[in-house]
Amino acid sequence: MKVLSKFIVGLGVAIAAAASSPAIAAPLTASEVEEALIGKTIQGKRMGMTIKIKLEGNGSAAMESTIMDDTGNWRMNGPELCMKWQSFNNGEERCSLITREKDGYRLEGGPLMKVLPDS
């Protein structure tokens, strides 16, 4: 009975902690991605390298980074933002869900990206 009592108390603590933790951000919809990021420049850091990406309304994309610049295209595949660069990722298209966070946007598995002012 003592073991069961400890289990129930522990379970109650776990449930209370889960209820008070912040919810995981839901991925943006295609229209939310387009409204938030298209026509703007976003910037982030990965492995010490600064990356800037501009997604144009016509589907073209430009990337500047510390070690390489590239051009390519973007498209929406449902809620996923897909980007295909001339050189980066060996020219293979990569699609990612995007979430909104307190200080910017995060591409699934990627760095936090901030929208630059006047972009």
Write up what this structure looks like:
The structure is a single chain. Helices cover 23% and strands 41% of the residues. By secondary structure, the protein is α+β, with helices and mostly antiparallel strands. The protein has a single domain (25-115), classed as Beta Barrel (Lipocalin), CATH 2.40.128.640. The protein has a nine-stranded antiparallel sheet with strand order 6-5-4-3-2-1-9-8-7, covered by helices on one side. Strand 5 and strand 6 (94-96) form a beta hairpin. Residues 1-22 have low confidence and may be disordered. This is Dihydrodipicolinate reductase. Keywords: Signal. It comes from Tabrizicola piscis. Residues 1-25 form the signal peptide.
Short note summarizing the structure:
Residues 1-25 form the signal peptide. The protein is an alpha+beta fold and 119 residues long.
In CATH terms, what is the fold-level topology? Lipocalin
Strand order of the largest sheet: 6-5-4-3-2-1-9-8-7
The end-to-end distance, rounded to whole angstroms, is 64 Å
> How would you characterize the largest beta sheet?
9 strands, antiparallel
The count of strands amounts to 9
| Category by helix and strand content | alpha+beta
* Whole-number total of structural domains: 1
What is the count of helical runs?
Answer: 2
Keywords: Signal
Signal peptide: 1-25
Protein name: Dihydrodipicolinate reductase
Quick tags:
119 residues, alpha+beta, Lipocalin, 9-stranded antiparallel beta sheet, 9 strands, 23% helix, disordered N terminus, Dihydrodipicolinate reductase
SSE arrangement:
Elements: H1 2-20, H2 30-37, E1 41-46, E2 49-55, E3 60-65, E4 69-77, E5 80-85, E6 94-96, E7 98-101, E8 104-107, E9 112-115
Antiparallel strand pairs: 1-2, 1-9, 2-3, 3-4, 4-5, 5-6, 7-8, 8-9
Signal peptide: 1-25
Keywords: Signal
Protein name: Dihydrodipicolinate reductase
